[in-house]
Amino acid sequence: MTRSEYKLALRELLNQDVEGLTEEKKAALVKKTLMDHQIEYYQSLPHRNHRKKWEDKELRVILKDAPTKENCLMYARLFERNYGSIELIYRWAATAGRDIPEEYRNNRFIKQIKRIAKEVGWRAT
Predict the structure, then answer these.
(1) pLDDT-based confidence at 125, cuts 50/70/90?
(2) pTM here?
(3) What angle do CA 71, 77, 78 make, to 5 degrees?
(4) Residue 113 sits in which domain range?
(5) For the CA atoms of the chain, what is the radius of gyration?
(6) Under a CB-based contact definition with an 8 Å cutoff, are residues 60 and 116 in contact?
(7) Are 17 and 53 within one domain?
């Protein structure tokens, strides 16, 4: 299939009605499906920095942005890391210290995330 054939087929699919969905809800479904596809594809690739230590400046950049799927994917690509590791950074940053399970309270990485989260103004520290 050529690029132009692919675009035509995609447009034809996008123009079809979906039972019970308005045009806005259909667009949201397309956006979510495309994002999920991109995440799955990116997860299948090798990541150069997998399991390497995070620098404070990298965490600072991530935690200054909203925890959206789009941002998780963008930072995973930028830092050549796994999508799930970016998502995990946001989750630990949003977890109150008292809610961190006992076995993780002395984890160096979690402490680093919590320290940077506090610096950039996250509330759940």
Answers:
(1) low
(2) 0.82
(3) 85
(4) 49-125
(5) 19
(6) yes
(7) no
Number of structural domains, the chain?
2
Do 64 and 117 fall within a single domain? yes
107 shares a domain with 79:
yes
User: Cα(86)–Cα(91) distance, rounded to whole angstroms?
Assistant: 9
pLDDT in tens, 59-101: 999 999 999 999 999 999 999 999 999 999 999 999 998 899 9
* 119 and 62 housed in the same domain: yes
> Do the Cβ atoms of 93 and 123 come closer than 8 Å?
no
> Which amino acid, 32?
K
Q: What value does the mean pLDDT take over residues 48-63? A: 95
Are residues 35 and 69 in contact, defined by beta-carbon separation less than 8 angstroms?
A: yes
Q: How far apart are CA 50 and CA 1, in angstroms?
A: 35
